[in-house]
Write a structure and sequence with these properties.
The protein is built from three helices and 14 strands. The structure holds flavin mononucleotide (FMN).
Length: 161
């Protein structure tokens, strides 16, 4: 999987007035009509049971200059710490929509499919926002690609064989 390049998202949800979220790259488009997506979450993430209760979430598409946001949401720290000082706004579901992203999709859970140590969450998109037209944050070889400017990407170094 280290040889599979992906974008990076932060999946947020809000349950009983508590915001939670985690960094996710297991995200894909399932269908266009109706617009349907899938995210795969580990069952041990603190965010997963909150999302199971709220049945709604937002997928925030990170820009290349939001690497620190990705790193923050990939740590198991109290939800309040993840959102501290982070500008957000709200849409249709109540989930936090992070400012400065490439865009976001707000979703309502359609299928909750536990498989092995993850749950595959199929969800219908209920609202979307197009954000900045900026370079995406990319994940490859267990690291983040960085921009060299002029539209050129510098990939993480290859590990020693
Ligand atoms: C680039 C990247 C991608 C990740 N993708 C996923 C993913 O698709 N699904 C998942 O469950 N965790 C993924 N993680 C790990 C979670 O972000 C991490 O376990 C997080 O601490 C969970 O937070 P929580 O326990 O507070 O919910 C990813 C981490 C990184 C750095």
């Amino acid at each position: 999987m280290a040889r599979w390049a992906t974008g990076v998202t932060v999946v947020t949800t809000r349950d009983a007035e508590v915001d939670a979220g985690l960094t996710v790259n297991a995200f894909l488009s399932v269908a266009l009509e109706p617009p349907t997506v899938l995210v795969s979450l580990t069952l041990v993430a603190d965010t997963t049971p909150l999302l199971e209760r709220s049945r709604t979430f937002a997928v925030n598409l990170l820009a290349a200059d939001q690497r620190a946001v990705s790193e923050r949401f990939a740590r198991t720290i109290p939800p309040a710490e993840k959102f501290q000082g982070l500008p957000v706004h709200r849409g249709a579901t109540g989930a936090a929509l992070l400012d400065g992203t490439l865009g976001n999709l707000e979703c309502r859970v359609v299928d909750w499919l536990p498989r092995r140590d993850h749950v595959l969450i199929v969800a219908e998109v209920v609202r979307e926002e197009v954000g900045r037209d900026a370079e995406p944050l990319l994940f490859y070889r267990a690291g983040y690609a960085t921009s060299e400017g002029g539209g050129r990407l510098k990939l993480p170094p290859a590990p020693p064989r």
